[in-house]
Amino acid sequence: MSRPVPYVQRTATAHRRLRPLSLVLALHLAFGGGLLAAGAWSTSAHAQSTDAVHQYDIPAGPLGNALTRFSAETGILLAAPADLVQGKNSNGVRGGHSIATALHALLAGTGLEAVQETQGQYRLQPLDKTTTLAPVTVTAAVQAEPTRAYAGGQVARGGRIGMLGDQDVFDTPFSVTSYTEELIQNQQARTVGDVILNDASTRLASSSQGAGETFSIRGFNTGGSGAELYDGLPGMSHRRYSTVEKLERVEVFKGANALLTGTTGSVGGTINLVPKKPLEQSLTRLDATYESESRVGVHADVSRRFGAAEQFGIRVNGIYRDGESAFENNKEELKDLSVALEARTGKLRTSAIFDYSEQNMTGGNQQFNALSAPPAAPDLGKAIQQPWERIDSRFLRAMLKAEYDLADNWTLHAAYGATDFKGYWLRTSGTALDTAGNFNRSALQQADVQSANTGLAGIRGHFKIGSVTHKLSAEFLRTETESGRISAAIPNPSPSSNIYQPVFVPRPAIGPLERDPRKTSESIVESTAIADTLGFLNDRVLLTVGVRHQRVQSRNFNAVTGAISGTPYDKSATTPAVALLVKASDTLSLYGNYIESLESGPTAPSGTVNEGELFPPSKTKQVEVGAKLDLGKVGFTAGLFELARPSGIIDSANRFDVNGEQRHRGLELSAFGQPHPQLRVLGSATYIDSKRTKTQDGTLDGYDGVGVPDLSAVLGFEWDSRAIENLTLTGRVNYTAQQYIRDDNSQSIPSYTLYGVGARYKTKLGGRDVTIRASVENLFGKDYWTTFVGSPGLLYLGSPRRAFLSLSMDI
């Protein structure tokens, strides 16, 4: 047996002077083998927690090299005889893992195992033998990974910053909040709308029922499903398809983002849905759910790994819900299946995701157009819509992704995704709503189809020139979307009704409607982008510069003949960005950015002297400054921003031009974390001064934007009870200020405050971990209106009191 390795003490200073591999070789020569690796990244006196999940990117190769890199990244000490690893190879490890599972993956197929002796210290031994070694200690720590949960578990430390990849929130000069799977499960969220209730900067236009959700961020609409991302790809989500039980994170990026995401239409921000991936450990989790009044559901989450080195993974999420919700006459049957696959072979990593969803609903949330000042909101739990209204949809999605390591510091990556949506609406809407609650009802049936495919290819790498570090990223992105829609009015035998005493009528005679309509529009968005983050003064000053060139093409078609209608659109634009982050101290970061968003340019309307003229894509320009404070257990962010969005106006010569503007100046504050071992908090507040600054003949200059509250705030907490072990009490308060529903600010809907409470209890059942959750939203049954940004007179009913109950079991 080789001599035991003597005691070794490593510090961050020593690490800087001697590369880990050099240290390994020196120790092997000096002592005949024993210490495989020891690394340090900071002066912390503790190694990483062994059960926390961290991100790894260690390629396949000689086992000694792989273990050396692992030890350098984690600060974990590995001890073994030298001949134990000679001649052995490792398959490497990538993705999120605990230390134990990462070591298991590194050693798979080698005939070795790692046995923990003390915190931060492991010894290697043959699977069927025990090798006794003297204790070895090392001082080390590691920087936190961006996607790892922050203290309290409700948000991640960071999230995807578009083409820049995953970044720690405290190290990026942009504003992003990533809500975790833990939050989604504990809050019993069903849709994306349920999750963003935690974010004051992001608002849902209508109450969340799963029948379609549209969001606004920083007072501007996200632009619909095309502007929202799925695993970083635009065009892969749909607002009628937003179940979240199968998501790992919901990432809200606040602010203009053309350079980063390549989307068009996402003026004030975008939402990225991160799907669940195969885990390193096996998981079988079953959830049973109940929602008032009688909606029940089941959810299964199963993850497994296969192969000699467990290089193959699969994760399946299945969801089924059926029954009536707290909205009277609102019934839903949902079938949802998601399969995620993963393979890791040497330098190549591939993954695939397949989704299928089918939703059939009756009722729905009725919209109204107010004729005058809106009346008081009716009882939200009572039906106004007709019981025969229907919303049916089917959604398919497939995505493939691949990464290949060209070298240690350079990675090629590519992705392709395709979606197919088919939907049918049979619904009513209310027009000419007056102060007494009277309205006229119209009925409509509509069928729509949409398909999209997105391709991305890019390269990322990092290098150093002199004392300046560089993180370079370049990509090509193409999204193609086709849509078809056909609609028909339905004769209504009783068009008059009242929101307080609604009139219900039998289902009218409905003629057949083509369920697979012709293509009525198509669009292609292509872009090429490059960005570099330069690090100065040991990366305490980070400067990001980049530019994206986008080409936007679109055509419309006659729904009957299929012929091209109007003038095809084909324009391009270049959007630069520059951002700076300064680490003023180990806990405080200061940042600023200039970045733009892009929208398809308008067409001069009929009746103007330049009727039919196509305008280039419109650029919304953003300037933002802020600060971020990381106290370890609690994080704070603050940001001041200005967004200036152009709009079209007609001048005195009857010429249409894009000379109008709506400007939003705002302040965002957020706090999150675990200030006390028994207390977790999550809160934010957003103030927006929304002004129309350049309007037709200046008649509306200085007026507030429609549907933009000047103040939104949310505060949530979780408290672990001392009196009852394993019991957690929860609560949340949401405040929304009044919102104008007329361009001249003559009418508005009042402010409202919503309260929610809940509890969860962890226990054992037959030796299995079981969690019981219960919650109530809109606890006091507040009746209120909501509205849609930029749509004068449009009103939606809010969400009534709703109760949720679930039981989760790991088997």
Main traits of this protein?
7 helices, single chain, Phage tail protein beta-alpha-beta fold, 5-stranded mixed sheet, 811 residues, Ferric Hydroxamate Uptake Protein, Chain A, domain 1, 53% strand, Maltoporin, Chain A, disordered N terminus
Helical residue percent band: under 10%
Write down the overall geometry: globular
| Helix/strand structural class | mainly beta
DSSP summary: helix tally: 7
Can you say what the CATH homologous superfamily of the largest domain is?
TonB-dependent receptor, beta-barrel domain
Distance between the termini: 43 Å
Number of strands: 46
How would you characterize the overall build of this protein?
- This protein has 811 residues and is mostly beta strands.
- The protein folds into 3 domains: 12-126, Phage tail protein beta-alpha-beta fold (3-Layer(bab) Sandwich); 158-275, TonB-dependent receptor, plug domain (Ferric Hydroxamate Uptake Protein, Chain A, domain 1), CATH 2.170.130.10; 283-502 and 513-810, Maltoporin, Chain A (Beta Barrel).
- It is built from 7 helices and 46 strands.
- The strands form 8 sheets. The chain has a 22-stranded antiparallel beta barrel.
- Strand 40 (739-740) and strand 41 form a beta hairpin.
- The longest helix is centred in the first third of the chain and has 12 residues, at 20-31.
- The two termini are 43 Å apart.
- Belongs to the TonB-dependent receptor family.
- One of its GO terms (cellular component) is cell outer membrane.
- One of its GO terms (molecular function) is siderophore uptake transmembrane transporter activity.
